[in-house]
Amino acid sequence: MKVTEHLKNADKTLFSLEILPPKKGDNINDLFDHLDPLMEFNPPFVDVTYHREEYVYKKMPNGLLQRKTTKKRPGTVGICAAISVKYNVDTVPHIICGG
To answer: What is the pTM of this model?
Structure first.
């Protein structure tokens, strides 16, 4: 169901959860450990926030700096799928845009 449909069909105040994906290399079960006690409140959806890539500057042997793009967290789609399957809840892959 879409978020707009949840809102349209609500007969009481709704709340949702917004989470960050775990950092790359961290275990998704740590995220589930945080979500487990919150899911008893039956949120209609969980929003998974994405953060933009970051830049790291590495000094080269010639003294110049080279800019490298790095992402500390995985994308939101896989995390949304895992949450949706585990908890049978709608998810929203949230993307932060920047320029």
So the answer is: 0.76
Residue 8 placed within a domain:
no
Number of domains, the chain: 1
Distance CA 96, CA 51 (A): 6
Instruction: Using alpha carbons, select from 64, 47, 66 the residue that is nearest to residue 56.
Output: 66
Nearest to 92 by CA among 38, 39, 23, 44: 44
pLDDT digits (tens, 9 = 90+) for 20-68: 888 888 889 999 999 999 999 999 999 998 877 788 899 999 999 999 9
Within-domain flag for 62:
yes
Q: Is residue 76 a part of any domain in this protein?
A: yes
> Does some domain include residue 1?
no
DSSP conformation class of 23? P
Backbone φ and ψ of 30, nearest 5°:
-65, -40
10 closest CA partner among 50, 62, 45: 45
